[in-house]
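Amino acid chain:
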Amino acid sequence: MMTLLGPNGIRTMSQHQQELIWKKLLAAGPYPVEAFAFVREGLNYAVEHVHEDAELLDEADRHITGQELCIGLRDLAIETYGLLAPVVLEHWNVKRTNDFGQIVFAMIDAGLMTRTSSDSLEDFQAVYDFEDAFNREVLLSRIGAG
C-alpha cells in the first residue's frame, strides 16, 4: 500500500519543510508524533515480512495492503513493547485498526507517504479487534514464542 518518501525515495525536502509538515500533522489530529513514527517504522517492518528480499525490490514492487500493514503493526507492537503494547497504543490514542489508517492517510495527505489508486481508508476497517489481538494470553504466547 504505502510507500515512504525519504533519503533514497522519490522526494527529498528541507529540514524546515519537514518540520512544517510534522507541525501540521500533529495539530490536525489526536495522535502524537510517536504514533506517526511507529507507523512509519511499521511500514518498513511489514514490507520486509510480506516481501522476501524486500530491499532488492523496486519501490513499486514493495507495495503492501492496509490489512498487511495492520498485521505488521500488531506484530511490531508486540515485539517492541511486549505486555505493554496495548498500553502504549492506548496512550497514543490508537484503539482500533482504523486509527492506523487515519495516521497513514494523514501522512499521505502531507506527502510523507504514497498510495496506489486501489488503496483506501476502508482497507484499515476492523482488520482485527484490539482486545483480541492484545489480550494478555495472546501477548504471553507471542512473547514466549519469540
Q: What stands out?
A: Residues 82 and 143 are 7 Å apart (CA to CA). The chain has a mean pLDDT of 84. Residues 33-50 form the longest helix (18 residues). Helices lie at 15-28, 33-50, 66-81, 85-91, 97-109, 130-133, 136-145.
